[in-house]
Amino acid sequence: MSRILMIVTAADSLQLSDGSSHPTGFWAEELVVAHQRLSSAGHSIRFATPGGAAAPVDPGSLLPSNTGGMTRSEELSSYLEGIADALAHPEALAGIDASDFDALVLPGGHGPMADLADDEDLGRLLTDADAAGTFIAPFCHGPAGLLSAIREDGTFVFTGRNLTVFTDEEERTGGTGAATPWFVATRLAERGAVLSNGPSWSSFVVRDGNLISGQNPQSSDAVADELLSALAGS
Questions:
Q1: Nearest CA to 55 among 24, 18, 94?
Q2: Does pTM surpass 0.85?
Q3: What is the distance between the alpha carbons of residues 9 and 144, in angstroms, rounded to a whole number?
Q4: Over the stretch 156-175, which tens digit does the pLDDT of each residue have?
């Protein structure tokens, strides 16, 4: 059994470039699929957020129009109810040692853009985890959290690493659109990450050693598959 830390946003809003506030949080499909698949395989999962604040679900991620229908919305809501206490009382990132875990998982939603992207405690965890070869699995907007990983000399930990993330095109056409405050893919590329992607809204995963990344919500199962294989030693 592996020990997994699921790092989740505590932000319930994102300020857009037009000054408005966009309701956000974690994306239900992504967190549920990751938690369900990994826990069903027998792995131990703990939740952590900045400051140990409650992890909010993005209300838009439970709309039938975004889940594929009412049945799926109800399934996701039911699963979240089953882990509601853990999401309401996560651990604080500041008190966590990366060496206690075999993998760090970062699901998306726009929330990570609001808090994880510049969280110093997350940056420390990611830096230590990467140095130790611990698996790091961010997907959709979760890779925004990678931006926090800055070494003491000012260099970006993931410069030169191959990964994927919610694309600028997906953000413009199905995300926060023209009011997007900044684009995660563009920011990662500017820092030196080597990005690749599949067609918009299709499953696409990139593995670069211990770094496993997924492009969008449609990649949730594939990220879980790749992480499960990695944890099994393949």
A1: 24
A2: yes
A3: 11
A4: 999 999 999 999 999 999 99
